[in-house]
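seq/struct pair 1
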Amino acid sequence: MKAFIWLKRVYKKPARRDGTRVLVDRLWPRGLTKEAAAVDLWLRHLAPSNELRKRYHENREAWMLFRRQYFRQLTKPEATEALQQLYELMSRNKPVTLLFASTNLEHNNAVALKKCWKERANRRQAPGRRARFAGASVEGRCADDRTATPSNAPFWGISRLVCYFNQESSPASKAAL
């Protein structure tokens, strides 16, 4: 996948290089009109749940744990539909800008989504790396590598990352939240 993925606060002025502007927050940003935001698509189901968002806000040091739980939430049906829409946008090989309202520019759901897509693209380019995930499972949700098809590609990548973060996280970090 050759698409350019940009990240930007929704409050920043739109630019030509933004391409398709996709808001990935559950709530509309405060004090911003739809015209000023210039949002092309609002994928609210890609946002973390309110519970997860509040828990992470209280414990900012738990970034890896947030990502693991967030990726797990992205395996839900409504999120996979939104991921499919995002995947279709990116398959056009045109710039896509993920918009977020968070003041934390380094740790938010848009950053996690971009990292997810980058890791997924890297695995596609280096098939030998995918074997590391073969056979991993998270509550029966991760498919075996042989079942990855273009129709389930977006959430296949998320499932792989869920497996990865469950394997990488220590019992101490799981108990942190």
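seq/struct pair 2
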Amino acid sequence: MDRQAQVAGMRPWKPPDGLWHSPPRPVSPTAGGRALLALVILLGAGAEIAGVAIWFVASQAGSALPLWLPFLVGGSLAAGAGLALLPLLSQRRLLAEGRAAPAVVTRHEKNQHGKITHYKFATLSGAVVGGHTGPDRNPHEVGATICVLYDPNNPGKNSRYPLSLVRLLCSPSERRSAKPHQRHEKVSPR
């Protein structure tokens, strides 16, 4: 896609609330991110319990189990817990330190899980980079403008905003200014 044609076809764009902050931005896990953290903690605890249980059985007199087996099982489960944490950490870094950019949906690709949306966006340096989303039941139309986050050092690492495992954590002053009707202040009589 020609950069001139892409920029000429776009309307003025404003990033979503909170993304205009300078990096690093404060982030917190979403419900899905908290569920993933709980799973990682359970896997880590299970790794320790399984390792100790197997060690206890292997250390019994007359046991045919090798003494290195508990370390292999416990280490494998702990490595699985670490690998399960990688998506959360990468999304956290992208939201905290990534740059927001407008992207244009270029095409859709259908698979058994839904439609994959392909998009292109221009980085701050002017390079045009492509990306795609995971399967989506309700994708944006071709030609629509969406918000993406990309790593300034590696624009190939990008994702559509909002992310599934982390969200922006706004400051208390932003929460007060965003929802003034929900504040209940007592007015003292004079």
